[in-house]
Amino acid sequence: MKSILRQLSTPVIAAVLAMLVGGIVAAAIGYNPLQVYGSLLSGAFGNAYNLGNTLAIATPLILIGLGIAVAFRAGLFNIGAEGQYWVAVMCAAWTGYHFTTLPGWLHIILCLLVAMVAGGLWAGIIPGLAKTYRGAHEVITTMMMSYIGILLCKYMIEEGPMRKPGSMPESEAVAQNTWLPVLSPSSPQLTIGLFIAIAAVIVVWFILFHTTIGFQLRTVGLNPRAARYAGIRVTWYTILALGLSGMLAGLAGGVQLLAMDHRLAEGFNTGYGYTGIVVSLLARNNPFGVIVSAIFFAALSTGGQNMQQVTNIPASLTDVLTGLIIFFVAAERLLPQVIQWYRRRTSRVRTSTAGEGPKSA
Amino acid sequence: MSILTNPQLWASTLAMAVPLALPAIGGTFSERTGVVNIAMEGIMLMGAFFGVSFAYWTHSAWLGAIGGMLMGGLLSAVFAWAAIRLAADQVVLGMAINIFAAGLTTFLLDTVFGYGGTPPDTPQLPTWSIPGLSHIPFVGAFFTNQSVLVYIMLILVGLSHWFLFHTRLGLRMRAVGENPLAADTAGLNVWRLRYTGVIIGGLLSALGGVYLSLGILNSFDVNMTNGRGYIALAAMIFGKWTPLGSFGASLLFGFATALGIALQGNGISANLLGMLPYVLTILALAGLVGRSKPPAADGIPYTPQR
Q1: Is A278 at the interface with chain B, CB within 8 A?
Q2: Half-sphere exposure of B211 (CA within 13 A, CB side)
């Protein structure tokens, strides 16, 4: 219990500190911080529509954040989820408007599988192999593959074979029987995709903490050298972890495609792949923490839009908050250090006013 | 082939290399002292935004450039403090700085200048032609109508190399990045040397951002660095953590970008050509350089022995 509290304390303190700084900034430029945060909260959770919207945005964030957390557990930093997500959408969209004779449920499963394979290969093959055999750092290779993937998608719909006839650069829509069912008419954005994401969390948690593969993967992350001495094939786990990570980003793309967008289009770039990094950092790579953290950042996003409309403060303030939160998560020693400095100072003041007592050794 | 012999292509290669070489050398300074720095993207954005802001407020592009550099330096000082004093995870911290800077510059752009963007009457840094050199056939294009920052960058490349590898302070900074314990035992102040490395790196990265906003243009746009800070990171690794190597790698990326632009008129897809720098980066990392080795203590916080 104590360890859970300890795990929780850093992210919570980080979020609170960041909100405090954000409030001070808002007050400094002449806004009422309570009103700002009030509009943010009501925009995120105020009614069924907003709540559904927040959860709908949280869905891809859960999946991407989960994938990045898996890579982190193996000691790898996958920052290319954005591209893995796009490439998966591209392949799933193609699958979605072909094979239209399939029954709906089978077509959905096929699309999601294609998305997972595409994302997994995009992350696992080139960055994975380059890392294991050539020592190329995955931060750079996944990022480069991400840019390449996004450009490939743009090529496909702007001038490539996936462009639909007409003036808009977009692909055909996927068959209507693949659209994921909506949960409640009062929040039209929210589909059963949310349950797919939660199921993925449970599966990943089980694999990571209750199977040999998961144990070995975490061992590689904690100490690759010790893992190698223990006979674990580190190269294989590097490729596996990156592949799994990409698969989850791909699944996010597939779910998003079938739930909301239904086609590959220019406006698809939402930055979920980048927010996913932040989601897993705040969750400290804990699969269940990812759910909470994804909802938090989804709320910042939907709430931020409302905040901009109500109070006129730019929604980019939420990005500043995000940066601050991650800063405080990374600098987790900040608070203990400050307390230590404060104690040392007050004790010094006490001894000097008392005018006695030996100096500390 | 006529494209390759067009001096304009090579001149624009040099111009495209500037916003990569400056942050790549900046990163080199930081990592040589043992602090992993992926925050160049964010620091460049700070430099770019505040460069334009100070240029507008002071009506001087030069004061703007200095202001932009100082603000980038300030952010890198915060980064340094958390990385060195608080022993924070440097990669996560770099990520935080990048998100923070992207958010802050967008936020300030909207609140300070409004949704219309930065004012059009912001002064721009001058372009120079070097009188003797610009008349030499072919090579002359390098020295004709280039932003003054192109020349400053060339000087900084040489200066940085000399500083890191031929001065006592440079040697000390490298020692701290290789073996901080030994350096500490020898009486060097590890923390102070690391601060120096990170902050010099921040000033250089910010200058790279200033080049984008005041060197090429006279305006700031949301996220105008467009991932250059990350490509600079690749250039630094490709250049094996040396200023000359970073510059060489930046030229290669600059060439890939310039070639992409030059080929656009020939009916080849701009999207596919745009992949060139990224493909080149992966090939470079996987094949040409092989395992490039970072400084031994790169990314490991150090607690001074007392």
Answers
A1: yes
A2: 27
pLDDT-derived band at B298 (thresholds 50, 70, 90) equals: confident
Q: Are B237 and A140 in contact (CB under 8 A)?
A: yes
Asked, for residue B134, whether it belongs to a domain, the answer is yes
3-class secondary structure, A164: coil
C-alpha A170, offset from chain centre: 26
> Are B270 and B259 contacting, i.e. CB atoms less than 8 angstroms apart?
no
Q: Residue A197 is encoded by which pair of tokens?
A: 């994401």
Quote the tokens at residue B30.
């930081």
pLDDT, chain A, mean: 89
Q: Which of residues 174-233 of A touch B (CB under 8 A)?
A: none
| Closest chain A C-alpha to B167 CA, distance in angstroms | 31
pLDDT score of A7 more than 80: no
Distances (CA, A) of B283 to A119, B24, B245, B287, B293: 21, 18, 16, 5, 17
Interface A:B, Cβ pairs < 8 A: 137
Answer yes or no: is B305 within a domain. no
pLDDT in tens, B214-241: 999 899 999 899 889 988 988 898 888 9
How far apart CA B38 and CA A323 sit, in angstroms, is: 14
Q: What is the value of ipTM here, to two decimals?
A: 0.89
The Cα of A146 is separated from the nearest Cα of chain B by a number of Å equal to: 9
User: Where does the pLDDT of residue B44 fall: very low under 50, low under 70, confident under 90, or very high at 90 and above?
Assistant: very high
Instruction: Find residues 112-171 of chain A whose CB sits inside 8 Å of chain B.
Output: 126, 130, 134-137, 139-141, 143-145, 147-148, 151-152, 154-155, 158-160
The residue assigned the tokens 């300074």 is B29
Of A29, A130, A323, the CB nearest to B282: A130
Distance of residue B104 Cα from the nearest chain A Cα, in angstroms: 5
Q: How many domains does chain B have?
A: 1
| In a domain? residue B300 | no
Q: Using the beta-carbon criterion (under 8 Å), do A140 and B233 form an inter-chain contact?
A: yes
Q: What CATH number has the domain bearing residue B128?
A: 1.10.3470
Predicted confidence (pLDDT) at residue A361 exceeds the cutoff of 50: no
Q: Which domain holds residue B256?
A: 3-291
Question: pTM for the complete prediction?
Answer: 0.88
Measured CA to CA, the distance from residue A19 to residue A38 in angstroms comes to 12
The residue with greater pLDDT, A193 or B291, is A193
Over 60: is that where the pLDDT of A56 sits? yes
Position A360 scores a pLDDT of 43
pLDDT band at A357 (very low <50, low <70, confident <90, very high): very low
Band of residue A2 on the pLDDT scale cut at 50, 70, 90: low
pLDDT tens-place string over residues A238-267: 999 999 999 999 999 999 999 988 899 876
Task: For chain B, report the end-to-end CA distance as a whole number of angstroms.
Answer: 64
Residue B304 counted as domain residue: no
| Chain B: closest CA distance from residue A155 (Å) | 6
Residue A199 to residues A66, B8, B229: CA-CA distances in angstroms? 11, 56, 37
Contacts of A319 in chain B (CB under 8 A): 99-100, 102-104, 106-107
Which residues of chain A are within 8 Å of residue B92 when distances are taken between CB atoms?
281, 326, 329-330
Q: Are B16 and B257 in contact (CB under 8 A)?
A: yes
